[in-house]
Amino acid sequence: MRAAVLSDGRMIVRDDLPEPVPGPGQVLVEVKACGICGSDLHFATHGADMLAASADLEGMPDMDIDLAGDVYMGHEFSAEILDAGPGTEAPAAGTLVTSVPVLISPGGIDAIVYSNTTVGGYAEKMLLSAPLLLPVPNGLSAAHAALTEPMAVGLHAVNASRIEPGEAALVVGCGPVGIAIIAALNLRGVKTIVASDFSPTRRALATTMGAHLTLDPAADSPFHQCQPAVVFEAVGAPGVIDDILRRAPAGIRLVVAGVCMQPDTVHPFYAVTKQINIQFVFGYDPTEFANSLRAIAEGEIDVAPMITGTVDLDGVGTAFDELSSPDRHCKILVTP
């Protein structure tokens, strides 16, 4: 079996991997499409820092990964069922499915994100948990179904904000997370969606995905041009949260969806004096994942404009390099 793996900081292809064998409660699937996530790019470059930060987290499991070995990645996938494990009830072979990226095995629960042992979506085949499978409805394409996972991230952020349709939203940063938030805000019926990004390409995509107004922060502060009730931070870079707290109107709700891996500094004085409510969000729950798939399949969210490139396994390394430029791509899909 072939798979693209992270080895010594670069994505390479292994041609001689053993084919996964499904156990009880598992299915073997053929991967049809898998999106490249920004978190994968960050892990490829800063894996050691991410592992160190994970080890510092109390109350959370450690990321038990050996960076000296091959690391499997790929958690935004759709796949076709090939076979089921012993005694496993699952959809019929040939069914196109997606799933939250979790594999249940006798040894426990493994996240399909970064692993030395659990194969992800940058491979020809992988294992999934039968109870977690969602058949892809309405003849939705494998490419569009693969975007269920990133769109669920945006839906979770919007749900956590409890924004009402009559409240104005400002999305700071129009990368894949910010775009997913814009789509979810549009799905929720929010009447005023403002998006801010330095990249004209990303601002154009934000408009396509539902933003009513786009702003270039290089020209002027977004807060001089709109009065949001809710601000979504989707950049994940040091200094952004503090800048929002300093510039935003009093009483806003700030939802932080961007994952900043570096130490950052904020002035609590800004938030205290303005009585700003700050909510940090991460991931999604299974219901939000299922609702994202439904919204895409029923045409309530059109994810086609987000797909800006497709590569096979041999092109994954080049795709990782190309995604470092915000003006070239939003989402590249791997089609093994």
TrEMBL record:
It comes from the Bacteria. GO terms for molecular function: oxidoreductase activity. Pfam families: ADH_N (PF08240), ADH_zinc_N (PF00107). InterPro entries: ADH-like_C, ADH-like_N, GroES-like_sf, NAD(P)-bd_dom_sf. The keyword Mitochondrion does not apply. Residues 23-137 form the Alcohol dehydrogenase-like N-terminal domain. Keywords: Oxidoreductase. SUPFAM superfamilies: GroES-like (SSF50129), NAD(P)-binding Rossmann-fold domains (SSF51735). Residues 176-297 form the Alcohol dehydrogenase-like C-terminal domain. This is Alcohol dehydrogenase. It comes from Mycolicibacterium alvei.
